[in-house]
Amino acid sequence: RTTEPTRISSLPGLVGQQATVSGWVTHTRSSGKVAFVTMRDGTGILQCVVVKPQVSAETWEAFQQLTLECSFSVSGEVKADARAPGGVELGVTELRLIGPSALDYPIQPKEHGVDFLLDNRHFWLRTPRQVAIMRIRNEIEQAIHDFFYERGFLRTDTPILTAAIGERSGLFATEYFDEGNAYLAQTGQLYGEALAAAFGKIYTFGPTFRAEKSKTRRHLTEFWMIEPEVAFNDTHANMDLQEDFVSFLVQRVLERQMPALKELERDVSKLEKVKAPFPRIDYTDAVATLQKKGSAVQWGEDLGAEDEALLVEDYETPIFICNYPKEAKAFYMKENPADPRTVLCDDMLAPEGYGEIIGGSQREDDYDKLLHRIKEEHLPLEAYSWYLDLRKYGTFVHSGFGLGLERTIAWICGTPHIRECIPFPRLMTRLHP
Ligand code: 4AD
Ligand code: MG
Protein backbone atom coordinates (compact mmCIF):
# COMPACT_ATOMS: atom_id res chain seq x y z
CA ARG A 1 0.00 0.00 0.00
CA THR A 2 1.21 3.49 -0.81
CA THR A 3 0.56 6.33 1.62
CA GLU A 4 -2.05 8.94 0.83
CA PRO A 5 -0.43 12.15 -0.55
CA THR A 6 -0.15 14.99 1.95
CA ARG A 7 -2.66 17.78 1.36
CA ILE A 8 -2.25 21.46 2.22
CA SER A 9 -5.09 21.30 4.74
CA SER A 10 -3.13 18.84 6.90
CA LEU A 11 0.06 20.95 7.08
CA PRO A 12 -0.85 22.94 10.24
CA GLY A 13 -0.53 19.62 12.11
CA LEU A 14 2.96 19.00 10.70
CA VAL A 15 4.85 22.11 11.87
CA GLY A 16 8.56 21.36 12.25
CA GLN A 17 8.36 18.27 10.02
CA GLN A 18 9.34 17.54 6.43
CA ALA A 19 6.49 17.28 3.94
CA THR A 20 5.92 16.85 0.22
CA VAL A 21 2.81 18.34 -1.37
CA SER A 22 1.58 18.57 -4.95
CA GLY A 23 -0.71 21.12 -6.53
CA TRP A 24 -0.97 24.00 -8.99
CA VAL A 25 0.62 27.43 -9.19
CA THR A 26 -1.59 30.42 -8.52
CA HIS A 27 1.15 33.01 -8.17
CA THR A 28 4.94 33.37 -8.26
CA ARG A 29 7.24 36.21 -7.34
CA SER A 30 10.96 36.48 -6.92
CA SER A 31 13.35 39.10 -5.58
CA GLY A 32 16.78 37.96 -6.65
CA LYS A 33 17.74 35.19 -4.29
CA VAL A 34 14.38 34.58 -2.62
CA ALA A 35 11.40 33.29 -4.53
CA PHE A 36 7.79 32.70 -3.46
CA VAL A 37 5.32 30.32 -5.08
CA THR A 38 1.70 30.03 -4.02
CA MET A 39 0.29 26.53 -4.45
CA ARG A 40 -3.35 25.46 -4.34
CA ASP A 41 -4.42 21.84 -4.15
CA GLY A 42 -8.16 22.16 -3.60
CA THR A 43 -7.83 21.80 0.17
CA GLY A 44 -6.02 25.08 0.78
CA ILE A 45 -3.39 27.60 -0.26
CA LEU A 46 0.27 27.24 0.60
CA GLN A 47 3.07 29.75 0.39
CA CYS A 48 6.37 28.07 -0.57
CA VAL A 49 9.65 29.91 -0.03
CA VAL A 50 12.66 29.04 -2.19
CA VAL A 51 16.01 30.50 -1.11
CA LYS A 52 18.51 30.18 -3.98
CA PRO A 53 21.68 29.44 -1.96
CA GLN A 54 19.83 26.72 -0.01
CA VAL A 55 18.51 24.66 -2.94
CA SER A 56 20.04 22.71 -5.82
CA ALA A 57 20.51 24.25 -9.26
CA GLU A 58 17.76 21.90 -10.58
CA THR A 59 15.25 23.17 -8.03
CA TRP A 60 16.07 26.81 -8.79
CA GLU A 61 15.77 26.08 -12.52
CA ALA A 62 12.42 24.31 -11.94
CA PHE A 63 11.16 27.40 -10.11
CA GLN A 64 12.07 29.54 -13.15
CA GLN A 65 9.86 27.37 -15.35
CA LEU A 66 6.72 27.71 -13.23
CA THR A 67 3.78 29.42 -14.94
CA LEU A 68 0.22 30.11 -13.84
CA GLU A 69 -1.67 26.83 -13.21
CA CYS A 70 1.19 24.47 -14.02
CA SER A 71 1.29 21.47 -11.69
CA PHE A 72 4.28 20.87 -9.45
CA SER A 73 5.37 19.30 -6.21
CA VAL A 74 7.50 20.65 -3.40
CA SER A 75 9.30 19.17 -0.43
CA GLY A 76 10.57 21.01 2.60
CA GLU A 77 10.04 21.96 6.20
CA VAL A 78 6.61 23.07 7.43
CA LYS A 79 7.07 26.32 9.35
CA ALA A 80 4.55 28.22 11.43
CA ASP A 81 3.87 31.70 10.06
CA ALA A 82 0.89 33.60 11.42
CA ARG A 83 0.70 35.86 8.35
CA ALA A 84 0.59 33.02 5.79
CA PRO A 85 -2.72 31.59 4.56
CA GLY A 86 -3.46 28.56 6.77
CA GLY A 87 -0.87 29.73 9.33
CA VAL A 88 2.05 27.78 7.82
CA GLU A 89 4.53 28.12 4.98
CA LEU A 90 6.92 25.64 3.40
CA GLY A 91 10.70 26.18 3.42
CA VAL A 92 11.46 24.48 0.12
CA THR A 93 14.34 22.04 -0.27
CA GLU A 94 13.19 20.52 -3.54
CA LEU A 95 10.75 21.58 -6.26
CA ARG A 96 9.69 19.56 -9.32
CA LEU A 97 7.62 20.69 -12.28
CA ILE A 98 4.98 18.05 -13.14
CA GLY A 99 2.85 19.45 -15.95
CA PRO A 100 3.73 22.73 -17.62
CA SER A 101 0.91 25.16 -18.41
CA ALA A 102 1.02 27.29 -21.57
CA LEU A 103 1.30 31.03 -21.06
CA ASP A 104 -2.13 31.61 -22.59
CA TYR A 105 -3.97 29.94 -19.65
CA PRO A 106 -7.46 31.37 -20.17
CA ILE A 107 -8.28 32.57 -16.67
CA GLN A 108 -5.89 35.36 -15.76
CA PRO A 109 -5.94 37.45 -12.58
CA LYS A 110 -8.29 40.09 -14.06
CA GLU A 111 -12.00 40.58 -14.68
CA HIS A 112 -13.60 38.26 -17.25
CA GLY A 113 -17.13 38.32 -18.66
CA VAL A 114 -19.54 35.61 -17.55
CA ASP A 115 -19.85 34.01 -21.00
CA PHE A 116 -16.10 33.70 -21.21
CA LEU A 117 -15.98 32.20 -17.73
CA LEU A 118 -18.74 29.73 -18.60
CA ASP A 119 -16.90 28.72 -21.80
CA ASN A 120 -13.95 28.00 -19.52
CA ARG A 121 -15.96 26.43 -16.72
CA HIS A 122 -13.44 23.54 -16.53
CA PHE A 123 -10.87 26.09 -15.38
CA TRP A 124 -13.18 28.59 -13.66
CA LEU A 125 -13.97 25.88 -11.09
CA ARG A 126 -10.39 26.17 -9.82
CA THR A 127 -10.87 29.71 -8.50
CA PRO A 128 -11.48 30.46 -4.79
CA ARG A 129 -15.06 31.67 -5.15
CA GLN A 130 -16.12 28.61 -7.14
CA VAL A 131 -14.32 26.29 -4.73
CA ALA A 132 -16.21 27.93 -1.84
CA ILE A 133 -19.58 27.46 -3.58
CA MET A 134 -18.85 23.79 -4.31
CA ARG A 135 -17.79 23.19 -0.70
CA ILE A 136 -21.10 24.63 0.45
CA ARG A 137 -22.93 22.51 -2.14
CA ASN A 138 -21.22 19.43 -0.76
CA GLU A 139 -22.07 20.42 2.83
CA ILE A 140 -25.73 20.91 1.93
CA GLU A 141 -25.87 17.55 0.12
CA GLN A 142 -24.39 15.77 3.13
CA ALA A 143 -26.68 17.65 5.52
CA ILE A 144 -29.70 16.58 3.44
CA HIS A 145 -28.77 12.91 3.78
CA ASP A 146 -28.04 13.33 7.49
CA PHE A 147 -31.37 15.08 8.13
CA PHE A 148 -33.44 12.34 6.54
CA TYR A 149 -31.33 9.44 7.76
CA GLU A 150 -31.62 10.63 11.36
CA ARG A 151 -35.39 10.86 10.95
CA GLY A 152 -35.85 7.35 9.58
CA PHE A 153 -36.54 8.22 5.93
CA LEU A 154 -35.55 5.71 3.27
CA ARG A 155 -33.55 7.15 0.41
CA THR A 156 -34.94 5.80 -2.84
CA ASP A 157 -33.93 6.39 -6.45
CA THR A 158 -36.58 6.98 -9.07
CA PRO A 159 -36.27 6.58 -12.85
CA ILE A 160 -34.66 9.19 -15.08
CA LEU A 161 -36.26 7.72 -18.21
CA THR A 162 -40.02 7.94 -17.86
CA ALA A 163 -43.23 7.85 -19.82
CA ALA A 164 -44.83 11.29 -20.15
CA ILE A 165 -45.53 12.12 -16.54
CA GLY A 166 -44.65 14.95 -14.25
CA GLU A 167 -44.93 18.70 -14.22
CA ARG A 168 -46.28 21.09 -16.82
CA SER A 169 -43.02 22.55 -18.10
CA GLY A 170 -41.17 21.34 -21.20
CA LEU A 171 -40.10 17.73 -21.70
CA PHE A 172 -36.87 16.38 -23.15
CA ALA A 173 -37.63 13.35 -25.31
CA THR A 174 -35.46 10.56 -26.60
CA GLU A 175 -36.27 7.48 -28.70
CA TYR A 176 -36.84 4.37 -26.64
CA PHE A 177 -36.74 1.15 -28.72
CA ASP A 178 -40.26 0.09 -29.72
CA GLU A 179 -41.94 2.04 -26.91
CA GLY A 180 -41.94 5.36 -28.74
CA ASN A 181 -40.55 8.28 -26.77
CA ALA A 182 -39.03 8.25 -23.31
CA TYR A 183 -38.87 11.53 -21.40
CA LEU A 184 -36.23 12.72 -18.97
CA ALA A 185 -37.76 12.95 -15.50
CA GLN A 186 -39.03 16.38 -14.43
CA THR A 187 -39.72 15.05 -10.95
CA GLY A 188 -39.44 11.81 -9.01
CA GLN A 189 -42.59 12.60 -7.04
CA LEU A 190 -45.12 10.25 -8.62
CA TYR A 191 -42.81 7.29 -8.05
CA GLY A 192 -42.10 8.72 -4.59
CA GLU A 193 -45.80 8.42 -3.79
CA ALA A 194 -45.76 4.71 -4.68
CA LEU A 195 -42.64 4.28 -2.54
CA ALA A 196 -44.22 6.13 0.41
CA ALA A 197 -46.96 3.50 0.47
CA ALA A 198 -44.27 0.82 0.58
CA PHE A 199 -41.90 2.42 3.10
CA GLY A 200 -43.80 5.17 4.94
CA LYS A 201 -41.23 7.95 4.72
CA ILE A 202 -38.94 8.27 1.72
CA TYR A 203 -36.92 10.85 -0.16
CA THR A 204 -35.37 10.99 -3.58
CA PHE A 205 -32.23 12.93 -4.52
CA GLY A 206 -31.76 13.02 -8.22
CA PRO A 207 -31.23 15.01 -11.37
CA THR A 208 -34.36 16.43 -12.96
CA PHE A 209 -34.78 17.94 -16.40
CA ARG A 210 -36.97 20.69 -17.79
CA ALA A 211 -36.91 21.93 -21.36
CA GLU A 212 -37.93 25.36 -20.17
CA LYS A 213 -37.30 28.23 -22.52
CA SER A 214 -36.48 30.47 -19.58
CA LYS A 215 -33.33 32.50 -19.61
CA THR A 216 -33.50 33.65 -16.01
CA ARG A 217 -31.10 33.64 -13.13
CA ARG A 218 -32.98 30.78 -11.48
CA HIS A 219 -33.61 28.28 -14.27
CA LEU A 220 -31.40 25.40 -15.32
CA THR A 221 -32.49 22.72 -17.80
CA GLU A 222 -30.82 20.09 -15.60
CA PHE A 223 -30.99 20.56 -11.84
CA TRP A 224 -31.01 18.42 -8.71
CA MET A 225 -34.11 18.01 -6.63
CA ILE A 226 -34.71 16.48 -3.22
CA GLU A 227 -38.23 15.10 -2.89
CA PRO A 228 -39.48 13.65 0.39
CA GLU A 229 -42.86 11.92 0.42
CA VAL A 230 -44.56 11.00 3.67
CA ALA A 231 -47.54 8.71 4.26
CA PHE A 232 -50.19 10.21 6.57
CA ASN A 233 -48.70 13.72 6.61
CA ASP A 234 -51.25 16.39 5.77
CA THR A 235 -50.37 19.80 4.34
CA HIS A 236 -49.61 21.27 7.81
CA ALA A 237 -47.24 18.45 8.78
CA ASN A 238 -45.70 18.86 5.33
CA MET A 239 -44.85 22.50 6.06
CA ASP A 240 -43.52 21.61 9.53
CA LEU A 241 -41.10 19.21 7.85
CA GLN A 242 -40.06 21.81 5.26
CA GLU A 243 -39.24 24.51 7.80
CA ASP A 244 -37.31 22.08 10.01
CA PHE A 245 -35.41 20.85 6.96
CA VAL A 246 -34.43 24.26 5.60
CA SER A 247 -33.47 25.58 9.07
CA PHE A 248 -31.28 22.49 9.55
CA LEU A 249 -29.48 23.04 6.24
CA VAL A 250 -28.75 26.71 6.93
CA GLN A 251 -27.54 26.07 10.50
CA ARG A 252 -25.30 23.26 9.26
CA VAL A 253 -23.60 25.51 6.70
CA LEU A 254 -23.13 28.18 9.38
CA GLU A 255 -21.58 25.60 11.72
CA ARG A 256 -19.21 23.96 9.27
CA GLN A 257 -18.56 26.25 6.29
CA MET A 258 -17.71 29.62 7.78
CA PRO A 259 -14.46 29.95 5.77
CA ALA A 260 -16.35 29.37 2.52
CA LEU A 261 -19.07 31.87 3.51
CA LYS A 262 -16.32 34.36 4.28
CA GLU A 263 -14.69 33.79 0.89
CA LEU A 264 -18.09 34.61 -0.65
CA GLU A 265 -18.44 37.69 1.57
CA ARG A 266 -21.86 36.38 2.63
CA ASP A 267 -23.70 38.47 5.22
CA VAL A 268 -24.12 35.63 7.72
CA SER A 269 -26.27 37.71 10.08
CA LYS A 270 -29.07 37.20 7.50
CA LEU A 271 -28.62 33.41 7.59
CA GLU A 272 -28.51 33.32 11.39
CA LYS A 273 -32.15 34.49 11.41
CA VAL A 274 -33.31 31.43 9.47
CA LYS A 275 -35.00 29.40 12.20
CA ALA A 276 -38.37 27.63 12.17
CA PRO A 277 -41.24 28.44 12.27
CA PHE A 278 -41.72 30.39 9.04
CA PRO A 279 -44.82 32.52 8.39
CA ARG A 280 -47.63 30.78 6.46
CA ILE A 281 -49.52 33.17 4.22
CA ASP A 282 -52.63 32.25 2.30
CA TYR A 283 -52.37 32.83 -1.46
CA THR A 284 -55.50 34.98 -1.39
CA ASP A 285 -53.98 37.27 1.27
CA ALA A 286 -50.70 37.35 -0.66
CA VAL A 287 -52.51 38.57 -3.78
CA ALA A 288 -54.20 41.33 -1.77
CA THR A 289 -50.83 42.40 -0.34
CA LEU A 290 -49.27 42.38 -3.80
CA GLN A 291 -52.05 44.50 -5.28
CA LYS A 292 -51.57 47.01 -2.45
CA LYS A 293 -47.88 47.09 -3.33
CA GLY A 294 -48.73 47.94 -6.93
CA SER A 295 -48.45 44.51 -8.58
CA ALA A 296 -50.77 43.76 -11.51
CA VAL A 297 -51.26 40.15 -10.37
CA GLN A 298 -54.84 38.82 -10.49
CA TRP A 299 -56.35 36.09 -8.32
CA GLY A 300 -55.92 32.82 -10.21
CA GLU A 301 -52.46 33.46 -11.61
CA ASP A 302 -49.24 31.84 -10.41
CA LEU A 303 -46.81 34.26 -8.78
CA GLY A 304 -43.80 35.42 -10.79
CA ALA A 305 -40.30 36.20 -9.57
CA GLU A 306 -41.09 39.90 -9.06
CA ASP A 307 -44.19 39.18 -7.01
CA GLU A 308 -42.25 36.71 -4.88
CA ALA A 309 -39.57 39.34 -4.20
CA LEU A 310 -42.27 41.85 -3.17
CA LEU A 311 -43.72 39.36 -0.71
CA VAL A 312 -40.47 38.35 0.99
CA GLU A 313 -39.19 41.89 1.45
CA ASP A 314 -41.21 42.18 4.68
CA TYR A 315 -39.62 39.09 6.26
CA GLU A 316 -36.23 37.87 7.42
CA THR A 317 -36.98 34.14 7.26
CA PRO A 318 -38.34 32.14 4.35
CA ILE A 319 -42.12 32.29 4.04
CA PHE A 320 -44.80 29.89 2.83
CA ILE A 321 -47.47 30.91 0.37
CA CYS A 322 -50.25 28.35 0.75
CA ASN A 323 -53.32 27.13 -1.08
CA TYR A 324 -52.94 28.42 -4.62
CA PRO A 325 -55.80 28.32 -7.14
CA LYS A 326 -56.17 24.96 -8.84
CA GLU A 327 -55.48 26.32 -12.30
CA ALA A 328 -52.09 27.70 -11.24
CA LYS A 329 -50.77 24.35 -9.99
CA ALA A 330 -50.24 20.71 -10.97
CA PHE A 331 -53.09 18.17 -11.35
CA TYR A 332 -52.01 15.95 -8.43
CA MET A 333 -52.57 18.47 -5.62
CA LYS A 334 -55.43 17.83 -3.21
CA GLU A 335 -58.51 19.96 -3.49
CA ASN A 336 -58.88 22.25 -0.47
CA PRO A 337 -62.11 21.19 1.33
CA ALA A 338 -62.45 24.73 2.79
CA ASP A 339 -62.33 26.37 -0.66
CA PRO A 340 -62.50 23.96 -3.63
CA ARG A 341 -61.21 26.64 -6.03
CA THR A 342 -57.83 26.11 -4.34
CA VAL A 343 -55.49 23.21 -3.56
CA LEU A 344 -53.61 22.21 -0.40
CA CYS A 345 -50.14 23.28 -1.45
CA ASP A 346 -47.29 25.59 -0.55
CA ASP A 347 -44.35 27.31 -2.13
CA MET A 348 -41.48 28.23 0.17
CA LEU A 349 -39.92 31.55 -0.81
CA ALA A 350 -36.39 32.32 0.34
CA PRO A 351 -35.66 35.78 1.76
CA GLU A 352 -33.52 38.49 0.15
CA GLY A 353 -35.41 38.13 -3.14
CA TYR A 354 -34.25 34.59 -3.93
CA GLY A 355 -37.83 33.38 -4.45
CA GLU A 356 -39.23 29.87 -4.65
CA ILE A 357 -36.90 27.14 -3.39
CA ILE A 358 -39.58 24.55 -2.55
CA GLY A 359 -42.85 23.47 -4.12
CA GLY A 360 -44.93 21.11 -2.00
CA SER A 361 -48.44 19.79 -1.54
CA GLN A 362 -50.79 17.29 -0.03
CA ARG A 363 -51.67 14.87 -2.85
CA GLU A 364 -55.16 14.15 -4.17
CA ASP A 365 -56.04 10.81 -2.59
CA ASP A 366 -59.58 10.55 -4.01
CA TYR A 367 -59.69 8.32 -7.09
CA ASP A 368 -62.54 10.10 -8.86
CA LYS A 369 -61.23 13.60 -8.23
CA LEU A 370 -57.78 12.64 -9.47
CA LEU A 371 -59.18 10.97 -12.58
CA HIS A 372 -61.22 14.08 -13.26
CA ARG A 373 -58.14 16.33 -12.97
CA ILE A 374 -56.09 14.09 -15.28
CA LYS A 375 -58.84 14.30 -17.90
CA GLU A 376 -59.30 18.02 -17.38
CA GLU A 377 -55.60 18.57 -18.06
CA HIS A 378 -55.74 16.30 -21.16
CA LEU A 379 -52.97 14.10 -19.77
CA PRO A 380 -52.41 10.65 -21.33
CA LEU A 381 -54.47 8.35 -19.12
CA GLU A 382 -52.45 5.20 -19.96
CA ALA A 383 -49.28 6.72 -18.53
CA TYR A 384 -51.06 7.45 -15.26
CA SER A 385 -52.92 4.18 -14.73
CA TRP A 386 -50.44 2.87 -12.13
CA TYR A 387 -50.57 6.25 -10.35
CA LEU A 388 -54.37 6.07 -10.18
CA ASP A 389 -54.05 2.52 -8.81
CA LEU A 390 -52.45 3.99 -5.67
CA ARG A 391 -55.88 5.54 -4.97
CA LYS A 392 -57.74 2.32 -5.77
CA TYR A 393 -55.81 -0.03 -3.50
CA GLY A 394 -55.44 1.43 -0.01
CA THR A 395 -55.49 5.14 -0.66
CA PHE A 396 -53.86 7.27 2.03
CA VAL A 397 -53.40 10.89 3.05
CA HIS A 398 -49.90 11.85 1.95
CA SER A 399 -47.78 14.88 1.26
CA GLY A 400 -44.37 15.80 0.00
CA PHE A 401 -42.29 18.51 -1.55
CA GLY A 402 -39.38 19.24 -3.86
CA LEU A 403 -36.41 21.38 -2.84
CA GLY A 404 -34.38 22.78 -5.73
CA LEU A 405 -30.76 22.19 -4.75
CA GLU A 406 -29.15 24.90 -6.86
CA ARG A 407 -31.66 27.56 -5.85
CA THR A 408 -31.04 26.72 -2.21
CA ILE A 409 -27.28 26.95 -2.73
CA ALA A 410 -27.63 30.28 -4.54
CA TRP A 411 -29.55 31.73 -1.62
CA ILE A 412 -27.27 30.37 1.11
CA CYS A 413 -24.15 31.48 -0.80
CA GLY A 414 -25.69 34.84 -1.76
CA THR A 415 -24.94 34.30 -5.47
CA PRO A 416 -27.53 35.98 -7.64
CA HIS A 417 -27.39 33.43 -10.50
CA ILE A 418 -27.73 29.67 -10.10
CA ARG A 419 -25.34 28.92 -12.96
CA GLU A 420 -22.45 29.10 -10.45
CA CYS A 421 -24.11 26.60 -8.10
CA ILE A 422 -23.61 23.43 -10.16
CA PRO A 423 -20.24 22.29 -11.51
CA PHE A 424 -21.23 22.23 -15.18
CA PRO A 425 -24.48 24.16 -15.68
CA ARG A 426 -26.91 23.20 -18.41
CA LEU A 427 -28.76 26.25 -19.63
CA MET A 428 -31.04 26.78 -22.61
CA THR A 429 -28.09 28.04 -24.65
CA ARG A 430 -25.29 26.04 -23.06
CA LEU A 431 -24.36 22.37 -23.37
CA HIS A 432 -20.54 22.82 -23.24
CA PRO A 433 -18.22 22.17 -21.50
O1 4AD B 1 -42.29 23.47 -7.90
P1 4AD B 1 -41.75 22.29 -8.66
O2 4AD B 1 -42.01 22.23 -10.13
O3 4AD B 1 -42.34 21.03 -7.91
C1 4AD B 1 -42.20 19.72 -8.29
O4 4AD B 1 -41.50 19.32 -9.18
C2 4AD B 1 -42.91 18.77 -7.39
N1 4AD B 1 -43.07 17.51 -8.11
C3 4AD B 1 -42.14 18.61 -6.11
C4 4AD B 1 -42.78 17.67 -5.13
O5 4AD B 1 -43.80 18.02 -4.57
N2 4AD B 1 -42.22 16.51 -4.94
O6 4AD B 1 -40.18 22.20 -8.43
C5 4AD B 1 -39.65 22.08 -7.15
C6 4AD B 1 -38.45 22.97 -6.98
C7 4AD B 1 -38.74 24.45 -7.16
O7 4AD B 1 -39.27 25.02 -6.00
C8 4AD B 1 -37.37 24.98 -7.50
O8 4AD B 1 -36.61 25.17 -6.32
C9 4AD B 1 -36.76 23.85 -8.29
O9 4AD B 1 -37.47 22.69 -7.97
N3 4AD B 1 -36.84 24.10 -9.74
C10 4AD B 1 -35.79 24.47 -10.50
N4 4AD B 1 -34.51 24.73 -10.19
C11 4AD B 1 -33.68 25.08 -11.20
N5 4AD B 1 -34.06 25.19 -12.49
C12 4AD B 1 -35.35 24.95 -12.85
N6 4AD B 1 -35.70 25.04 -14.13
C13 4AD B 1 -36.27 24.58 -11.83
N7 4AD B 1 -37.59 24.25 -11.82
C14 4AD B 1 -37.90 23.97 -10.54
MG1 MG C 1 -43.06 25.32 -8.24
TrEMBL record:
It is found in: Cytoplasm. The keyword GTP-binding does not apply. Its EC number is 6.1.1.22. It is an enzyme of class 6 (ligase). GO terms for molecular function: asparagine-tRNA ligase activity; ATP binding; nucleic acid binding. Keywords: Aminoacyl-tRNA synthetase, ATP-binding, Cytoplasm, Ligase, Nucleotide-binding, Protein biosynthesis. This is Asparagine--tRNA ligase. It comes from Pseudogemmatithrix spongiicola. The lineage of its organism: Bacteria, Pseudomonadati, Gemmatimonadota, Gemmatimonadia, Gemmatimonadales. The gene is asnS.
